[in-house]
Automatic annotation (TrEMBL):
Subcellular location: Cytoplasm; Nucleus
SUBUNIT field: Binds to RNA polymerase II.
Classification via SMART domains: AAA
Principal subcellular localisation of the protein: cytoplasm
Protein keywords: Coiled coil, Cytoplasm, GTP-binding, Hydrolase, Nucleotide-binding, Nucleus
Gene name as annotated: 100640746
Region (Disordered): 304-334
Organism from which the protein derives: Amphimedon queenslandica (Sponge)
One Pfam family recorded for the sequence: ATP_bind_1
GO CC annotation terms, alphabetical: cytoplasm; nucleus
Annotated function: Small GTPase required for proper nuclear import of RNA polymerase II (RNAPII). May act at an RNAP assembly step prior to nuclear import.
Name of this protein: GPN-loop GTPase
SUPFAM superfamilies in alphabetical order: P-loop containing nucleoside triphosphate hydrolases (SSF52540)
Domain AAA+ ATPase stretches: 22-169
Source taxonomy: Eukaryota, Metazoa, Porifera, Demospongiae, Heteroscleromorpha
Family: Belongs to the GPN-loop GTPase family.
Length: 334
């Protein structure tokens, strides 16, 4: 049953509490059709079978059917269709606006997540198929940053392995993956999905071995192919620290390995990222204090201005009263 957020004030999250005891937040991203929803459904049933059900959040306002038992659903808070008609927006604009509106309630989402019992080890966020809505919007950053400031958070990028068999498309996917990593700067896992159709080993080999990738481009001398070759060299460092797992969301293979990767990413978060998150939190707190100071100064000035105006008005009234009196006296004397 979805938590109803409308008009409900959740308790304030226990700021500063140690992230080590908190569940891991998994943000699932991927191009439309890569299999995000099927993947979330699969990992949910995997955890369910192990009697470790996750807490689930759907962030896709336009999805028709959510095939897993969602706990928080963006569709309960915002009506995507009425946003389209209300603001005269197209489908993508309405998704962006819905996500923006939902983000204003992120503190409540965090409260709900924060008050989950310790048995809840994972909180999974399914995102809109229009990947750029999340990756390149302010709301995507706010959601990821606010989660990471309280919980170990991992970004999972689901790729359709079938669409990667061409080296050029593979490179496009890797560049996108690299840009997501750069944007969120959080532990990152690539899920090579649909391995029941194509084995993912070729993609992992291309990441590790430049020569194997170069060989795959052998017969192609086009501009895009040459560019792809040079890009591959540039991405060498990115590949070095990259975790990728092959999964079939349909069959359920590779899910075990996926959770091992998530648990390592959680450790990585606690060791490597937490200090950055702490610094980020401090920076945000400093900015907030500065903002409050400015607001206070503005209020002080406004108050002073009002007082001055009032004083001036009283002075003017007193002056006009006394000149009236003077006039009256003069009239009486004459
Ligand atoms: N063979 C195979 N098909 C898969 C797998 N995962 C997903 N699919 C299929 O891929 C299609 C898209 O899957 P979805 O889960 O809807 O993909 P999505 O990324 O959530 O798509 P959007 O809702 O558009 O963002 C569906 O037909 C799924 O059945 C897989 O592991 N193997």
């Amino acid at each position: 049953m979805a938590e109803c957020m409308a008009g409900l004030e959740g308790p304030s999250p226990s700021e500063g509490a140690s992230s080590t005891n908190k569940p891991t937040c998994i943000i699932v991203l991927g191009m439309a059709g890569s299999g995000k929803t099927t993947f979330v459904q699969r990992i949910t049933s995997f955890l369910g079978e192990q009697k470790r059900p996750p807490y689930l959040v759907n962030l896709d306002p336009a999805v028709q059917v959510v095939p897993y038992p969602v706990n928080i659903d963006i569709r309960d808070t915002v009506n995507y269709k009425s946003i389209m008609s209300q603001y005269g927006l197209g489908p993508n604009g309405a998704i962006v606006t819905s996500l923006n509106l939902f983000t204003t309630r992120m503190d409540q989402v965090i409260s709900f997540v924060d008050k989950q019992p310790p048995e809840i080890k994972y909180v999974i966020f399914d995102t809109p198929g229009q990947i750029e809505v999340f990756t390149w919007s302010a709301s995507g950053s706010i959601i990821a940053e606010s989660l990471a400031s309280l919980f170990p958070t991992v970004i999972v990028y689901v790729i359709d392995t079938v669409r990667c068999v061409s080296p050029v498309t593979f490179m496009s996917n890797m560049l996108y993956a690299c840009s997501i990593l750069y944007k969120f700067q959080l532990p990152f896992i690539i899920v090579l999905n649909k391995t029941d159709i194509v084995d993912h080993k070729f993609a992992q080999e291309w990441m590790k071995d430049f020569e194997a990738f170069d060989k795959a481009l052998d017969d192609d001398d086009s501009y895009s192919s040459n560019l792809t070759r040079s890009m591959s060299l540039v991405l060498d460092k990115f590949y070095e620290n990259l975790t990728s797992v092959g999964v079939s969301s349909i069959l359920g293979t590779g899910v075990d390995e996926f959770f091992k990767a998530v648990d390592s990413a959680r450790e990585e978060f606690l060791v490597e990222y937490l200090k950055d998150v702490e610094a980020l939190k401090k920076k945000r707190l400093d900015m907030e204090l500065k903002r409050q100071e400015i607001e206070l100064e503005k209020l002080r000035l406004e108050k002073k201005e009002k007082k001055d105006k009032k004083g001036k008005a009283t002075q003017e009234t007193t002056q006009s009263d006394s000149s009236k009196k003077e006039e009256e006296t003069e009239n009486q004397m004459s």
